[in-house]
Design brief:
This protein is 56% helix and 8% strand. It has one helix and two strands. The radius of gyration is 29 Å and the shape is rod-shaped. The termini are far apart.
Length: 72
């Protein structure tokens, strides 16, 4: 029994599937990078806010650093 090939009217999906898959992965990676950057920035701002609201200066080994001092 012989294998019968298509008549030539078959649409080659692989030729278009790979570029779209690569572009989709690139876009998803970009969104992931943007989300990670936003989370990192949010964490940094939260940490700075917590440090700014601590009572008194921060001292390590005799060196004292006062962050976000008020002008009063």
């Amino acid at each position: 029994m012989a294998h019968v090939h298509g008549t030539g009217s078959d649409f080659p999906l692989r030729r278009f599937l790979y570029p779209f898959a690569i572009a989709g992965a690139f876009v998803a990676g970009g969104w992931g990078l943007a989300a990670a950057l936003a989370w990192l920035l949010d964490s940094a701002v939260h940490t700075a806010t917590v440090i700014a609201h601590t009572a008194g200066p921060i001292g390590v080994g005799g060196l004292t650093l006062k962050l976000f001092s008020s002008k009063r």
